[in-house]
């Protein structure tokens, strides 16, 4: 039987809806089987298209069909990486001693619940928008033959099977809106959980200076409480860093392929929009819904990475440096110095030495898009 290969996570997941859409679906046997069929089918179609291009290639054909040809490599990367990313990321989170959202008080619990409501609402709305784009792509338009090489090939070489094969091909557009943004959602999901854990650790540390503790007159008892909180903070901080390193280690290879195939897709798409001589008026709704959904998913994951960096900056600048350590004993001061040393450098989700998930990456992408558009427009 095709039973699910996943079980309920070993941690309290406030983002259960988020996890279901972007992780759990892809960890089931039926989904893995479907992705494997799609993977081999697209590889076969790419091989056929490459051979046909080499035999009867013209400039017009390259302009018309290059975007879908390049997008297929990005789709292949997504299909191959998504279930592996889901398994690796869940394993990484389960290796971390995750606190429940009510572990440090009702204030933080309500704050996290409010953010999870926003995040779950976002993923539902953006998924609906992506599915709308998929439905629009599945609905036949007169110029589809000039855009999708597979449809043109079916009509030319398999006219007797045209209706059936074209219907099957168009059904794939209903699946892709779930698969394509999945790596972005998975990354955002991990970022949110790390940020929630970090927020609770900071609140746990901030309570060191609350009156309930500072009013303790017994110095020994007071320093024992301080020591316990400092050690818990160091352990939690180290656990988050260790889990993130393990997750990013599995993600590095995929980042390289996503970068190459994504850049190839972007260049070919811009070139197509500038050079295509047919009419795209009937397809504007397709392009608009697809672009808006993709941009929102990209913004979500970049903002999630930036918020982690901002949180670690706050940990050092506003929390650690503001603690009143004058009453602490020598042992606690040493532990405090260790914690300060570990927190001086802001934590970033680094995919390489020069690429981190933050606003700088978004700015670099926008500059690259502008440069590509300028060059291609000049070439036209």
TrEMBL record:
It is a multi-pass membrane protein. InterPro entries: 7tm6_olfct_rcpt (IPR004117). Belongs to the insect chemoreceptor superfamily. Heteromeric odorant receptor channel (TC 1.A.69) family. GO terms for molecular function: odorant binding; olfactory receptor activity. GO terms for cellular component: plasma membrane. GO terms for biological process: signal transduction. The chain crosses the membrane at residues 37-56, 62-81, 117-139, 167-192, 254-275, 287-308, 357-379. This is Odorant receptor. It comes from Zophobas morio. Keywords: Cell membrane, Membrane, Olfaction, Receptor, Sensory transduction, Transducer, Transmembrane, Transmembrane helix. It is found in: Cell membrane. Its main location: membrane.
